[in-house]
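Dear Dr. V.,

Thank you for agreeing to look over these. As mentioned in my earlier message, I'm a first-year student in the group and I'm still getting used to reading structure tokens, so any feedback on how I've presented them would be very welcome. I ran two proteins. I've put each sequence directly above its structure. The first is here:
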Amino acid sequence: YIFKMHHFTPSENSKSESQNKNEKPFDLIEILRNPYVKGSVYDLGIIIEEGKLGGVPFKKLKAKATWKDAQLVMNPIELRALRGELRGSANINAQDFYLRNQDPTFSSTLRVNHLNIGDLIENVKPEMKGLLGGSLDGGVILSGEGILFDDLIKKSSGRLQGRLSDGYFETFKILKGQLDDKVRQGELNKWL
């Protein structure tokens, strides 16, 4: 099977970011609850021209995927995001979803090339825009559980290793932000 999609936007806290009003957002729970999915075996070629995941836009996602025994294995997977390229593999394991009604788990190992850190921060943590920047080349290992993107972020852990080019870190601005938080919370008065 070849699964083609022009625009992908997952459901995130029941909000659709889809630009096409007739287009339904991707919903993993709905797919997993489909009676034809649980015990089936599928070999898929996945092509998504553009989309957004957790506020981060991406283009040209291509993956070879296999769904078997309640696991989706995507290897290889490649996409363009944040002015760079990501390549590697990803796995979604839904066995506990069916057996114990628990969130699916995921893991991924990706190689990143020329990933723009400033764009990443702007999309994921907009309050920190302008504090970090540069271009990242290296590897990312992520794992976690959940269905909605916000849950995935909260329940994820990972490791990032690489080389940052043309990077910057605005330490003073970050410290000033922490100091401002202390003033707002009244904690600084204890020290004066």
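The second protein is here, in the same arrangement:
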Amino acid sequence: SRLATMVDKKYHLEASVGQVSGNIWDGIVLDNVQIRYVDSLRSYLMADIPRITTGYALSNLWDHNFLLKYLFIDSAIVTLVRDSANGWLLPRLPARSDSGEVSSPDFAVEMLRLNDASLRIIDHNDTLAVKRINLELTLSASGGTYGVKVNQLGFKMEDSLYHLDATSGKLTYGGGQLMFENLLLDRKSVV
């Protein structure tokens, strides 16, 4: 489609959705979502997501209040690639305004949940894999300040010595400063 071609050329992305269900009034379900990085020389599958479920109030979106009640992402496999010149093959960011700032809309996600996700980081020499990522958080952005309240985060790496059983706390970024509040990291011993 024309929109897909514009996104591809502008951001180096191709996205496809296998099926859309739900209803436009309060939430939709996207099945078999795939996002590919594509440039003139390379292409790779950045994200393979079997299901994304979201809930919202259409009236909020209509009024440009980008508030999602929930966003559930199930069994996502995310891959990031670094080339031989140590450059990350990532989509382009939106253009900066005349003031040098990237404009981003205000938004909030009351509950974002990743269930059983995986992350692969492929370097030209090595691969790092993080599996069984389970994450629940609240996310917001307003006036260039970003907030994340982590309710739960756990993961396991290929080497069983590296895992995290529980994490919680709040992170806020704004004005070039990153602030942590009530940060808890819990790693139970491996049996």
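From my reading of the second output: The longest strand covers residues 107-122. The helical segments are 2-11, 58-62. Does that match how you would interpret it?

Kind regards,
E.
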